[in-house]
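[agent] plan:
  1. take the single chain provided in the ticket
  2. run structure prediction with default settings
  3. attach structure tokens to the ticket
  4. add a short note for the reviewer (M.T.)
[agent] executing step 1
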Amino acid sequence: MQLFSALALLKEGLSGQRGWRAQWRSPEPKSNYDAVIIGGGGHGLGTAYYLASEHRLTRVAVLEKGWIGGGNTGRNTTIIRSNYLFDESAALYDHALKLWRILRRP
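[agent] step 2 finished; step 3 output follows
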């Protein structure tokens, strides 16, 4: 197991980040899924969580070409780039915010 410390972070930063080992598994794809979600940013991960918690789907694949939790959510939050010029967009955001609050419940 790789240790993560301030010294290791400094060493990797100075060496061009070439010494890190993968910290996740790379499983073989299953033959079928209940749902496949394209994009592992905030919306994709939230959707996967919702499908698992509310609809009891156990075979959910999240496909992401970059890093999980990245994209707009990882850079500056999803909300900043939303379009609030239209009443419909603001209403959709309000509804999503209500859903987000209930997703936190166990």
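[agent] step 4 note for reviewer: The chain has four helices and two strands.
[agent] ticket updated
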